[in-house]
Amino acid sequence: MIHNSLNIPAIHKLVLIASLCLGSTTLANSAMAADSETTVVEKKVEQLRIAMIDADAKALKQLSSPLLSYGHSGGHIEDQSAFVEKIVSGKSDFVTMEFSDQTISISGDVALVRHNLNADIKDGGVPNTIHLGILLVWQKQAGDWKLLARQAFKYPPQAQ
Predict the structure, then answer these.
(1) Are 132 and 116 in contact (CB under 8 A)?
(2) CA distance 28 to 60
(3) What is the DSSP letter of 159?
(4) What pLDDT is attached to residue 128?
(5) CA-to-CA distance for 136 and 122, rounded, in angstroms?
(6) Which CATH number fits domain 10-154: 3.90.550.10, 3.40.50.150, 1.10.260.40, 3.10.450.50?
(7) Helix or strand holding residue 86 (H, E)
(8) Low-confidence ranges of the chain (pLDDT < 70)
(9) pTM recorded for the entire structure
(10) Which pLDDT tens digit goes with each residue over 62-107?
């Protein structure tokens, strides 16, 4: 007679082990899918950065939603057409643009991206350097990630 310390028939042990393995595989696949979506969003953010520097109207329109709400650190808000026009016309000219400390969180069809923006710009031809916090809201629309909202904010002055 075979001694079974848990008093569970062998077939039940196999079912239990198989269930645990399948559950682990499902969790691993979910984690890989989330990583894959994060990578896609990260690439979209980089495409947006390049399109803004290059003043590429076609790319800016393709990357953003027609419902775009683009908020500036001073409180001004633009829709998609105003956002694209301002960059393409040169009224807002990003000479250089770098992102740091970027985080991406995805929940369903929404991705939240936060980063620090450091850029050399020319607003109305006047050179300036900006350091802002940015929140981007991306939404998966018809299988493609689109920029739905952007809000910039100024950091408080650092104590000296």
Answers:
(1) yes
(2) 35
(3) P
(4) 95
(5) 22
(6) 3.10.450.50
(7) helix 80-88
(8) 1-34, 159-160
(9) 0.78
(10) 999 999 999 999 999 999 999 999 999 999 999 999 999 999 999 9
CB atoms within 10 A of CB 78: 18
Residue 31: how many CB atoms within 10 A of its CB? 10
In whole angstroms, give the CA distance from residue 146 to residue 111: 10
Tokens of 103: 């985080």
Question: What whole-number distance in Å separates Cα of residue 130 and Cα of residue 122?
Answer: 10
Q: Would you call 2 helix, strand, or coil by DSSP?
A: coil
Q: Which residues contact 87 (CB under 8 A, 6 or more apart)?
A: 52, 55, 60, 93, 94
Collect all residues with Cβ–Cβ distance below 8 Å to 38 and sequence separation of at least 6: 104, 106, 111
Two tokens, residue 30: 């979910």
